[in-house]
Amino acid sequence: MKKTLLLVCFWTLGNPALFAQTEGPRAVHITEKSAIHVPPQDAPQALSKIYTNLGKPTDLYNDTQAWTISGPTSDIGFPLSLALPFTPKSNSHVSQVQVAMQYFSGTNQVNLSIYGDTSGAPGTLLAGPVTVKNLPAAGTCCTLALANFTPVAVTAGTRYWVVADAPSSGTGSDFDGSWDWVAKPVILVAGNHGAGWYEFNGNALPAGEVLGTIP
């Protein structure tokens, strides 16, 4: 499967989607592995959507554009982590996170956590990390990576973060994967990696949803 990394500069105003380590965020353009899109796993009926940016069941996310997630011993050679911000509309308890996380190489697992906000970035760890294994192959849609948490209370109008990263050492530190973008582009831009121009989502929000109970 072909992937092309694109180092990007990021702005936070109007686009508070990222939290990266060491080298900064990296976009990856992926050749779609299969044009057949399968629906995602069913969410527990007892849980409500606290936050979501996912699309339709067979078009949940853009499986050709993503942010790289990697560990220090991966093919990338350094750690890259990412965070998705969400702000509950009501006081709630988060029990599950579903994200468009996919796999390239290394150990097929990634850690998902929930953090509080400190000055517009992930701050205090509230839940996790939960190790999610057997991620779908990059360039496919629409299976999600699911992490279950002991219910954690969140407050209406307060920003929180879903963080994806790999361990700093040991099993999983060689992980190389991608967090796919939302299905529908909000701001269209174009990039050129030497093989011609292609269109991608300039808003670049990683795709996912947060589930739980309200209140």
Provide a compact summary of the structure:
0% of the residues lie in helices and 49% in strands. It is mainly β. It has one domain (3-213): Jelly Rolls.
Describe this entry's structure for a reader.
The protein is mainly beta and 215 residues long. The chain has a single domain, classed as Jelly Rolls (Sandwich). Helices cover 0% and strands 49% of the residues. The chain has strands at residues 3-7, 26-30, 48-52, 61-70, 82-86, 92-99, 101-105, 109-118, 121-133, 145-154, 160-165, 176-182, 188-192, 197-201, 208-213. The strands form four sheets. A five-stranded antiparallel beta sheet has the order 1-2-4-12-7, with no helix packed on it. A four-stranded antiparallel beta sheet has the order 3-15-6-10, with no helix packed on it. A four-stranded antiparallel beta sheet has the order 5-11-8-9, with no helix packed on it. A hairpin with a 4-residue loop joins strand 13 (188-192) and strand 14 (197-201).
Notable features of this structure?
five-stranded antiparallel sheet, Jelly Rolls, 215 residues, mainly beta, four-stranded antiparallel sheet
Mean model confidence by pLDDT:
84
CATH class: Mainly Beta
- Per CATH, which architecture? Sandwich
Structural category is: mainly beta
Question: Biggest sheet, strands in spatial order?
Answer: 1-2-4-12-7
Rg for CA atoms: 16 Å
Low-confidence residue ranges: 4-23
How many beta-strand elements?
15
